[in-house]
Design brief:
By secondary structure, the chain is an all-alpha fold. The chain contains eight helices and no strands.
Amino acid sequence: MSLLFLVSIIIFSLFISFQDFKERKVSVWVLIGFSVLLCSEAFWSLPLKQVLAQVFLNVCFLLIQFALVFLYYYVRYKGTKKLMSSFGGADIWVLVSLVIAFALPNFMIFMIFSLVLSMLTYLIYRTISANSSGYIPLAGFISLIYCISRIIMYFYSPLLQWDDGWVQEIMGQ
């Protein structure tokens, strides 16, 4: 069953990436399918108590990130009008959908890594391409990075995304 989830999530992630890169619009049905698959996989693989705990912690981390971005835009641009035009619905949807996909330490690392890699990749693309808009296809980058990370995790350790034991080993507990 885990292979079926993996293949389905990869297909939906690639659809999100393709649509966001090509059209800057992602089908709502693809986003719903992606979310349903992530939720189904989590509830299939983990106890309910663990799923709810990781979702709560990841949502708190995501809210802190959103608050910092909001604060940055409010100070930098003297309001939130620019913020609302900078992020698309698919960007927010993908970020919120991924809260169920990781334990908190893994989610933090994934989010920071994927946001930095998305920004760097877009800056490189923007410098070499004359046809770039001013918008980063964030949902496309994050879902592509998630797709790649899932493939790596499948071969390394299928449950690594939900296992935060490596943090406890580093801290010596």
